[in-house]
């Protein structure tokens, strides 16, 4: 079976092709490496096949393949090593080449790679700032340099009689390929902190390797969401074709956007096949991996474990035994067997097809109960088509891959919040939210709606999709993740996401907004608490803007509370290293920074002036250029 996967269909028609597939290890053999939920971690396989045409060879070509198996989901970093090794294997087809590759790959040093917390990973993944958490790189580099210096001192003695000043470091030492320098004992770093740079020596060749630092769930390989969305959006934009209606899939009627049909199928655990006869198997695999990341949004799990980035016709029986699989194939025979799949994504034509033999879901009790309580009737727009228009605009405006991923993450988080609200209305409680509002300093949690009518309208529109998601693998995995995340949160006394969304989307009264700002100042203090707050203030949604607006609150005590909070952000430190909060503060516009400086000085004057302390300060904070009258 392994050899068949390493030689994909049509490999003889291309000089080079890549495939990706996964191996599952028995739980008895990996008890010490179990993932959350008691499952064994996947073994990711990156395979390279090269065809060299030779008229003297049998069948006119020589075809060889080589693969690397790893537990690292960022397996694309090994592509240069596979290219070198397979070329050597063509010259010398011996086990020595495999042994050399094995030794080189396992010698890769990741000991100085920063280990980020769950909040730090989310902040870094959502940020375009290349210096975010650069201090952690410096700290690890300094530790490595100190260890190297100790070893050097123990092995080399300084010449006797040499002046003390001449013993100081006056040259630089490379810690990574051409990036990190030590000048006179001072470490300077110029790098993209989203990646950790190391190297692997293969056959006396130093191969630079860049390892992703912030790895989110369901992110495997080097795929592109933009490519996936563009593939299935362009034909639909030119010639829309109606879908056969299905409650779980066509949530916006027969002309639901194809990408929304795909994500609905992923959420509701349908059998999905990506097919391409003309393209390389590597492209097919990348579409499968991109689909898993699309529906995950860095939040949900359970998709890659049942994904088959590449498979062939000989394994169809095993494939059909897996419920809710996501498979990539090249054999056109799959298109002629609608009983094998629920959704067929034809990469060549850019069309998505719903199987004529797909099962219709039975009416759920939850939908009936909600229908009896809801005051909304008729067809309700989910807003998905408008959301897809926004995504297409982002792509056409060249916002970049990170911006597209951030918007999809927002969509997935919004969906999970709506699912929690649906369960609370219908079933009285939800496993997707942990907490007791009676213990909160400010009431409210989950998604924010302007009114009850809007809430019922959104839940009605998404009801079928939510009911289809409940009970799936990703739903149960998310319930476990919610429990783990709640345990890791330092602030449990209020729902930060909910309160920030209220500031961002609602027109609050002076008392309501003031209470939120004062609670933020009171309970957001130490390093991890600031990180937790920054996670709900991503840069693509304005960063600290909802907090900075509090600098213009009508109440002086609220303005000063916001000043204190922003001051903590601007000196967000741990172990004398300024971290994420400083970068967020620096991204504020000049208008907010000037207001912050003015209010900070005003607060200091009030503390220092006994007249002001007696309440005789007037005209405080009337305008950015206003003066304080005493």
What does this structure look like?
The chain has 630 residues and is of the alpha/beta class. The chain has helices spanning 2-6, 79-91, 95-106, 118-125, 134-155, 225-238, 258-267, 281-296, 316-320, 365-373, 384-396, 401-427, 452-469, 473-488, 496-505, 510-523, 527-535, 545-548, 556-570, 580-586, 590-608, 610-616; strands at 16-23, 43-53, 61-70, 180-183, 186-189, 195-202, 205-212, 272-275, 307-308, 326-329, 343-346, 351-354, 573-574, 577-578. Strand 13 (573-574) and strand 14 (577-578) form a beta hairpin.
Strand content: 5-15%
Low-confidence stretches: 156-187, 612-630
Quaternary structure:
single chain
Mean pLDDT comes to 85
What's the N-to-C terminus distance? Answer: 85 Å
Largest sheet: 5 strands, mixed
Global shape: globular
Number of helices: 22
**Spatial arrangement of strands, main beta sheet:** 9-10-8-11-12
Rg from alpha-carbon coordinates: 28 Å
Structural class from helices and strands?
alpha/beta
Helix content: 40-55%
Number of strands: 14
């Amino acid at each position: 079976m392994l050899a068949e996967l390493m030689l994909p269909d049509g490999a003889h028609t291309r000089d080079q092709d890549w495939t990706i597939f996964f191996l599952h290890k028995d739980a008895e053999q990996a008890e010490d490496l179990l993932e959350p939920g008691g499952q064994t971690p996947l073994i990711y396989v990156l395979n390279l096949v090269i065809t060299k045409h030779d008229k003297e060879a049998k069948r006119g070509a020589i075809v060889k393949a080589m693969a690397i198996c790893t537990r690292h989901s960022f397996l694309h970093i090994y592509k240069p090593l596979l290219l070198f090794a397979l070329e050597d294997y063509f010259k010398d087809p011996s086990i020595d080449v495999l042994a050399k590759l094995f030794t080189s790959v396992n010698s890769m040093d990741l000991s100085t790679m920063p280990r980020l917390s769950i909040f730090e990973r989310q902040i870094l993944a959502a940020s375009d700032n290349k210096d975010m958490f650069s201090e952690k790189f410096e700290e690890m580099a300094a530790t490595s340099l100190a260890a190297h210096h100790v070893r050097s001192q123990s092995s080399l003695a300084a010449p006797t009689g040499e002046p003390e000043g001449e013993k100081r470091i006056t040259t630089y030492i490379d810690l990574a390929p051409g990036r990190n320098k030590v000048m006179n004992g001072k470490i300077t770093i110029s790098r993209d902190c989203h990646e950790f740079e190391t190297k692997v020596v293969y056959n006396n060749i130093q191969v630079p390797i860049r390892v992703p630092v912030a790895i989110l769930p369901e992110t495997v390989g080097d795929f592109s969401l933009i490519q996936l969305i563009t593939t299935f959006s362009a034909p639909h934009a030119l010639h829309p074709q109606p879908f056969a209606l299905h409650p779980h899939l066509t949530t916006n009627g027969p002309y639901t956007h194809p990408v929304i049909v795909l994500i609905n199928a992923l959420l509701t655990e349908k059998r999905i096949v990506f097919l391409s006869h003309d393209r390389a198997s590597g492209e097919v695999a990348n579409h499968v991996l991109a689909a898993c990341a699309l529906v995950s949004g860095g939040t949900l799990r359970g998709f890659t474990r049942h994904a088959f980035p590449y498979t062939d016709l000989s394994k169809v029986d095993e494939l059909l035994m897996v419920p809710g699989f996501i498979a990539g194939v090249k054999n056109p025979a799959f298109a002629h067997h609608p009983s094998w799949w629920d959704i067929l994504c034809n990469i060549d034509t850019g069309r998505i097809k719903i199987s004529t033999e797909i099962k219709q879901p039975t009416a759920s009790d939850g939908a009936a109960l909600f229908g009896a309580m809801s005051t909304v009737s008729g067809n309700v727009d989910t807003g998905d088509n408008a959301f897809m228009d926004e995504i297409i605009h982002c792509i056409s405006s060249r916002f970049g891959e990170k911006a597209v991923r951030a918007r999809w993450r927002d969509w997935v988080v919004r969906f999970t919040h709506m699912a929690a609200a649906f369960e609370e209305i219908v079933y009285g409680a939800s496993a997707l939210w942990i907490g007791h509002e009676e213990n909160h300093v400010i009431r409210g949690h989950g998604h924010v709606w302007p009114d009850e009518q809007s809430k019922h309208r959104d839940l009605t529109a998404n009801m079928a999709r939510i009911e289809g998601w409940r009970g799936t693998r990703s739903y149960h995995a998310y319930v476990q993740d919610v429990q783990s995340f709640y345990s890791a949160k330092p602030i449990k006394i209020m729902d930060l996401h909910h309160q920030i969304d209220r500031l961002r989307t609602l027109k609050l009264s002076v008392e309501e907004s003031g209470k939120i700002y004062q609670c933020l100042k009171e309970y957001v203090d130490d390093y991890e608490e600031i990180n937790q707050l920054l996670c709900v203030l991503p840069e693509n949604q304005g960063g600290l803007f909802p907090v900075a607006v509090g600098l213009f609150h009508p109440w002086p005590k609220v303005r000063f509370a916001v000043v204190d909070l922003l001051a903590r952000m601007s000196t967000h430190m741990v172990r004398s290293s300024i971290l994420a909060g400083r970068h967020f503060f620096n991204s504020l516009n000049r208008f907010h920074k000037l207001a912050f400086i003015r209010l900070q000085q005003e607060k200091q004057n009030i503390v220092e002036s006994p007249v002001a302390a007696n309440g005789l300060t007037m005209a405080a904070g009337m305008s950015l250029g206003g003066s304080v009258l005493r």
